[in-house]
Amino acid sequence: MAKMNMKRMIVLVMTLAMTLTLCACGTRSLVGSYSDGLDYYAFDEETYTVYTRYSLMEEYEILDYGTYTLDGDILRLYPGGFSRVVEYTVVRENDKLSLYTGGSLRIGTVYDKVSDKCIPPEDLSTAGNIFSDASDTF
After folding, report:
1. DSSP of 16-65
2. Which pLDDT band, with edges at 50, 70 and 90, does 111 fall under?
């Protein structure tokens, strides 16, 4: 009888461990900072900030901020102070983040990962990464 209870306990523990492992596979985040030279996305575990500049000679300005969710390859941005949701399809390959909008047209932008941390663009030079700002060279 004790052997039967022990077997049941082992099966229960293994099932619980497998269930928790599978649940963790669905939770992903975009923690880090990404840029295409003009636009700059900074993600932490739950929030994001989008910075932009209109030329490589200008400083970055905050364009948008809020919270986000990542469900599989669907990124939903919830801008602060707005009730609308902005939705993208996400493709991550190596150190690239591609954000695509809308149906069959699939308009997208590719961003390079510039840091594994959520940092504002003005802190890049002190973060110890290799991203070089093109506005520093002519």
Report:
1. HHHHHHHHHHTB----EEEESSSEEEEE-SSEEEEEE-SSTTSPPEEEEE
2. very high
Q: What's phi and psi for 126, nearest 5 deg?
A: -100, 0
pLDDT at 104 over 80: no
Q: Which two tokens stand for residue 64?
A: 């948008």
Sign of the torsion formed by the C-alpha atoms of 11, 17, 19 and 21? negative
Residue 108 has pLDDT above 50, yes or no: yes
| pLDDT score, position 45 | 93
- Distance, CA of 95 to CA of 93 (rounded, Å): 6
Rounded CA gap, 25 and 21, in Å? 7
Beta bridge partners of 71: 27, 74
Residue 23 has pLDDT above 90, yes or no: no
